């Protein structure tokens, strides 16, 4: 039986074009999804768009467009971002789809039946940017700290979710499962929120004030609060609540919800409480990543520093963009994007690193006949270095430390480069034109074999991060990429005799910029 692995991104609020902040999230999830597939897991990877709520309606109005059309256009941009970034998602859900709406209503009905939804008059401070009510302690100088805007006072009769009822169960969950929220700093933040006590939350709005949302079952005058609608996407996309629940039965509970630090609370506290209310198993982990800054500042339209992923992938090879984010922005913290940093990493790690190593090795093989030579002597030290690299790599990936995993691979790339500099195989290649000395031939052949097989090993390690580059290295080594990827993980990472393969040097993998 295959291990199943269900991974999701948050569904971004599609009232603006996607920027690299979301590209980062979807890329992180893609790397993990591809890694788990490499391990042999049966992976299901979901992303999509969140399209209801006041912000969407407001932005559509400002754009002078009907909200349905506006949301559809924006959602399509997120879909094409996923395609452009070579994201391996299995499904893309929109909260305006019928399949979602029907099942989100069913979820509400169940929670209501179980006594966790009630109606009451409420007056509070509401931040439109957050789509949520705020308490005084959430505000800084009377303003939402995320949006830097003053919340409006809202008095309505709304439905409430009895979040307070789940205080004890959530405390137990957090006590029992310390890795429920990753990393520890984000887990601790949620512990603190829990300690201060959970209050019931408003989960609907009056329809006359907000006509753009899923109607509350049995009450045509109210629509669902956008979070109560959106969070259920993780199960509605799997067919929960429909006639065919086979995907849900197969893949739920989620193994990882990948989310940004600003929505940690919704995923780590509200969502589990909602699931407990209707009696559905809880996700195994909420993996919380940081923000991406541009030149040290938060991206914003007013600062004019929004970086569009389209521009990046138009200018640079896509794999280099994937590499940069994975290598430069640690999952568990914030990171910074600057053009200078990008070019620096590109030239140092890609053009001069893996790109240069590949062409150096293949040039020498070309000069000695164009075929990967056989090795006479076993180099146990070299092979154990590969084993060690794999071990460290797997350890870092298990902890979402993509940056450290790549760092480990690049240590091995440097080892190969250094060995070439020390052994100076080009001198041995020159000697070939003289009457052949069998000894130096065999030393050269051993070295070239080890370098070629190391390139193959590196190509496998890069698969989750730079799938196109993996293919390219395979092809250059005379391997059929399709056949290689059909192999099991243990076969792929086993030291393999690829001697006799006809290499093709090809263009440089990453031309210098
Ligand atoms: Zn806000």
What features would you describe in this structure?
The protein contains 20 helices and 18 strands. The longest helix is centred in the last third of the chain and has 29 residues, at 339-367. It is of the alpha/beta class and 513 residues long. It starts with a strand and ends in a 20-residue tail after the last helix. The chain has helices at residues 20-39, 54-62, 67-84, 98-113, 167-176, 184-195, 226-230, 233-236, 246-251, 264-278, 309-315, 318-328, 339-367, 380-398, 402-423, 425-431, 438-462, 467-476, 481-485, 489-493; strands spanning 4-9, 42-49, 91-94, 117-127, 132-134, 139-140, 143-144, 152-161, 181-182, 201-202, 204-206, 215-216, 219-224, 256-260, 286-289, 292-294, 297-298, 335-337. The mean pLDDT is 94. Zinc ion binds next to loops.
Topology overview:
Layout: E1 4-9, H1 20-39, E2 42-49, H2 54-62, H3 67-84, E3 91-94, H4 98-113, E4 117-127, E5 132-134, E6 139-140, E7 143-144, E8 152-161, H5 167-176, E9 181-182, H6 184-195, E10 201-202, E11 204-206, E12 215-216, E13 219-224, H7 226-230, H8 233-236, H9 246-251, E14 256-260, H10 264-278, E15 286-289, E16 292-294, E17 297-298, H11 309-315, H12 318-328, E18 335-337, H13 339-367, H14 380-398, H15 402-423, H16 425-431, H17 438-462, H18 467-476, H19 481-485, H20 489-493
Parallel strand pairs: 1-2, 1-14, 2-3, 9-15, 14-15, 16-18
Antiparallel strand pairs: 4-5, 4-8, 6-7, 8-10, 11-13, 12-13, 16-17
Bound molecules: zinc ion (ZN).
Zinc ion binds at residues 127, 129-130, 144, 146-147.
């Amino acid at each position: 039986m295959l291990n199943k692995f269900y991974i999701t991104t948050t569904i971004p609020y599609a009232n603006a074009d996607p920027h690299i902040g979301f590209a980062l999230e979807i890329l992180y999830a893609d790397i993990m999804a591809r890694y788990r597939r490499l391990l042999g897991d049966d992976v299901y990877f979901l992303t999509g768009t969140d399209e209801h709520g006041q912000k969407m309606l407001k932005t559509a109005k400002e754009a002078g467009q009907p909200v349905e059309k506006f949301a559809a256009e924006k959602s399509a941009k997120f879909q094409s971002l996923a395609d452009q970034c070579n994201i391996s998602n299995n499904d893309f859900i929109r909260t305006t789809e019928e399949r979602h709406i029907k099942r989100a209503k069913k979820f509400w009905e169940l929670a209501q039946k179980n006594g966790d939804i009630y109606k009451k008059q409420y007056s509070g401070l509401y931040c439109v940017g957050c789509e949520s009510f705020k308490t005084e302690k959430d505000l800084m100088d009377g303003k939402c700290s995320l949006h830097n805007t003053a919340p409006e006072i809202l008095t309505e009769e709304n439905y409430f979710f009895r979040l307070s009822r789940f205080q004890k169960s959530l405390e137990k969950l957090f006590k029992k499962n310390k890795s429920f929220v990753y990393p520890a700093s984000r887990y601790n933040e949620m512990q603190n929120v829990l300690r201060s006590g959970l209050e019931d939350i408003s989960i609907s709005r009056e329809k006359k004030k907000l006509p753009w949302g899923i109607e509350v079952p049995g009450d045509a005058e109210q629509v669902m609060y956008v979070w109560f609608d959106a969070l259920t996407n993780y199960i509605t996309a799997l067919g929960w609540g429909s006639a065919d629940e086979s995907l849900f039965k197969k893949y739920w509970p989620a193994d990882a919800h990948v989310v940004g630090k600003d929505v940690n609370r919704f995923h780590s506290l509200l969502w589990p409480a909602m699931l407990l209310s209707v009696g559905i198993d809880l996700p195994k982990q909420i993996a919380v990543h940081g923000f991406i800054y541009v030149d040290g500042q938060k991206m914003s339209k007013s600062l004019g520093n929004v970086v569009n992923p389209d521009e990046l992938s138009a200018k640079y090879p896509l794999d280099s963009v994937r590499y940069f984010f994975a290598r430069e922005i640690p999952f568990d913290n914030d990171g910074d994007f600057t053009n200078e940093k990008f070019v620096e990493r590109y030239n140092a790690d890609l053009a001069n690193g893996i790109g240069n190593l590949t062409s150096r090795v293949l040039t020498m093989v070309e000069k000695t006949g164009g075929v990967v030579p056989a090795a006479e002597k076993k180099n146990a030290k070299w092979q154990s270095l590969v084993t060690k690299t794999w071990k460290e790599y797997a350890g870092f990936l298990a902890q979402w430390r993509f940056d450290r995993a790549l760092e480990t691979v690049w240590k091995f790339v440097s080892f190969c480069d250094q060995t070439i500099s020390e052994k100076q195989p080009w001198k041995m290649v020159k000697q070939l034109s003289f009457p052949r000395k069998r000894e130096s031939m065999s030393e050269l052949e051993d070295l070239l074999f080890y370098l070629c097989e190391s390139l193959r090993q590196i190509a496998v390690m890069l698969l989750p991060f730079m799938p196109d580059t993996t293919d390219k290295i395979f092809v250059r080594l005379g391997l059929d990429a399709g056949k290689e990827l059909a192999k099991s993980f243990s076969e792929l990472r086993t030291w393999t005799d690829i001697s006799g393969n006809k290499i093709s040097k090809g263009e440089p993998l990453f031309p210098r910029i």
